[in-house]
Amino acid sequence: MGVITQLNERLKAIPLALVTDDEVRAAIESVAEVPVDDAGDDGVGDLIDWITGRGLLALSVPADDGGGDLSNDLIAELFTALALRSEAAALRAASHFVALEQVRTSGSAEQRRSIHQLVLRGERLAHAGFIAALPCETDRIGLTLSLPLMSLPVMEQDWTVFPVSDEDRRGIALVPSAAVEAGSTTVGLHLPRDQFLASGPQTDVCAHAVATLLDAASLVGTLQAKTRPRTDDDPQAGDVMSVHIEWLRAMVTRLATAIDGIQVGASTLTIGDMRQTARALESLIGTARGNTPR
After folding, report:
1. Can you give the residue range of the structural domain that contains 89?
2. Contacts with 243 (C-beta within 8 Å, 6 or more apart), sequence order
3. Which of 96, 106, 238, 278 has the CB geometry, 3.0–4.6 Å to 212, for a possible disulfide?
4. What is the model's pTM?
5. Which of 41-50, 74-83, 266-275 holds the top average pLDDT?
6. How far is C-alpha 252 from the geometric centre of its chain's CA atoms?
7. Sign of dihedral through CA atoms 94, 131, 2, 12?
8. 212 inside domain
9. Domain membership flag for residue 208
């Protein structure tokens, strides 16, 4: 079981390799100045193309597989900067990082390395969402599954990560966008065996934690964008949002540190500790959204 079968043949430039905190922060600071064409998608596509080309979608690729394995706090900074420009762009990028986290805790070392190499070359992933596992049938050469109507997120991705299960195992399947059509029902889709990655014991909880982290970091950017015009018009509303921003930042740092520790296996924190921190941050996200003036 070796390399992931590559069906996407689009030519694209190889992204930059970012390996130091200073390089990443310089790239994140430049997000505010990315020129976009507002026609059609409010510049979302331009922003995603830019962060892809700068190597920012590969920040969490492990060092053993050629990536920088940079901190989740830095990744959170990226999402705050993205959300300041576009909430939709942050949402698309978050789907990629959550899918990448699922890969990190699934499959064999060879499978993970193969997928990480795709990401380092500029391939984009999308997470199908925390949905019920799709039933699949496995044989000696691959697996067969059916994708329900509208199950494919439309995020200009190259691969979509779906939760799947057969009689014996749960895992994730990497479905190439070239093999399916968005909004359609694909029955009897057959994938090579190397595109099924058996889930690890931490796959779901780690992916949920990363999703919460990126949601909170994006919300910080959204609140900052709303705070700027309200400071003069409605000082009280600005003060409320500023308090939420500070609370969110503190909890984002706490959860990012917990995820870092779990990912590298060098933390005294347990999975339970990380889950508890993520739940506390989810509660704070709900409070901040509920108390934010429209």
Report:
1. 21-120
2. none
3. 278
4. 0.90
5. 74-83
6. 15
7. negative
8. yes
9. yes
